[in-house]
Write a structure and sequence with these properties.
- The protein is an alpha+beta fold.
- It has one domain.
- It has 1 helix and 3 strands; from the N terminus they run αβββ.
- The chain has a 3-stranded antiparallel sheet, with helices on one face.
- It is flat and about 30 Å long.
């Protein structure tokens, strides 16, 4: 199942002032990692 693109865009805006954010596709969604730690995920699961 694809991740929620609108949710991912919103998360990107919220984290845009940070320089230690990495996005990775995993667990059926898009995971945002901050300083090497999983912070939040955007998924299509609802």
């Amino acid at each position: 199942m694809p991740y929620d693109v609108q949710a991912a865009d919103g998360i990107r805006v919220l984290l845009s002032d940070r320089h230690d954010v990495v996005e990775r596709k995993m667990m059926g969604g898009l995971v945002f990692m901050v300083n090497g730690h999983m912070c939040v995920t955007a998924s299509g699961r609802g």
